[in-house]
Every structure is written in structure tokens, then in C-alpha cells.
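Working notes for the structural subgroup meeting. M.R. asked for a predicted model of this chain before we commit to crystallization trials. I am recording the input and output together here so anyone reviewing the notebook later can reproduce the run.

Input as submitted:
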Amino acid sequence: MPQTHLSPYLFRFYVRDIIQAITRMNVGCSVGGSMVNLLCFADDMVLIAPSCDGIKLLIDTLYILADEINMSFNTSKTVCMVFNP
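Returned structure, recorded in C-alpha cell form:
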């Protein structure tokens, strides 16, 4: 019988309101005609914005929403990347 790992499912359930709030924001990058600002896989989250102001708005919003559910982030694993067109 294959082993099922519950961690990604529990994380998704725990942060679903955060995911919905962030993805409804009008900040992100156009990818294939769709606006994308958050990618999630297992317990990892990636914020995407077209500017420093946009990413700051997403980070500030994520911080406020996460604080409401007593969620913390491992900042030693946090990375910021900038791509110039």
C-alpha cells in the first residue's frame, strides 16, 4: 500500500484563507494570460510580483494574515530573486 504524507494536505487546509486572500489581490505577473502572485507546493510558498512595491505589499499582507493564525516563517530559508526584463 502506498504511503500518504498528510503534511502537504494539512498545510493547504491550514492556510487556505491566506491563499485565497493573496490570490485575489490585484498584484502579480501575467503568465499565459493569467495573473499569478502565489505558487504553493507542499509547505513552500513563492510570492511573485512585477515590482519591489508589489512584492512588499504581498509580503506585508502575508505577514498580517499569517499572524492571525499564529503561523511563523523560517526566515533563514527565505530567498529573494529579481529578474530584469
